[in-house]
Amino acid sequence: MKVTILQPSYIPWRGYFHQIFKSDLFIFYDDVQYDKRGWRNRNRIKTMHGSKWLTIPVLASNVQIDKTPINRIRIDWGQKWNQKHWLTIQHTYGKTPYFKTYEKDIFFFYSKHYEYLADFTIDYTIHVCEWLGIQNTRFLKSSDLKGITGNKTNRLIQILKQVGATHYISGPSAKNYIDENSFKESGIRIEYMNYNYSPYPQLYPPFDPQVSILDLIFMTGPDAINHILDLNGKKQ
To answer: Which stretches does DSSP call E strand in the chain?
Structure first.
């Protein structure tokens, strides 16, 4: 069984969804430490003035946030961030070929009031998978598993063993810290992603490959999944 373990993120880029597509089981790694400068509560969209950050404000001091699991981070509803994000998305993508196709579905998420950041980003991600036509991947939260201890490689292997994984799909940056021998001893094969994607049409050149999945969806609609699976012109 092919498994990916990734931290939940806010409207991630296409590489994140490529890993979901390739997996039989995708595990949201939601009970590890929140990284305040990561992608948990923010992402970028492409505007006429360049890439722009959309950031969800959270309730935690600098001291607390460094010790808090992702799934315990609360959204700061003292700020009207949801209205601001939605208006920015409307203004940026309103004239794209497929904005109207997905407008109501995406507005739905900016009209809801989630208490916890991870609940919002996980639900949002799963619904994006539906829009992309990703149907054969199951989802699980690492916080739903019992008896997982340790850190880094040992923790990953415990999770993979508990769900019956034989094949682990990882981002390429993990090569810098992952203990491949431990995976080999556990009988789990590692596959590293190749993110060398072909460009797709964007409203405002030059092409930026690192923006949120919303950019690809609004520009290519039902063909978005083909752009996710296209590596140097070869479908994967």
So the answer is: 2-6, 25-28, 42-47, 50-55, 58-59, 74-75, 138-141, 167-170, 189-192, 230-231, 234-235
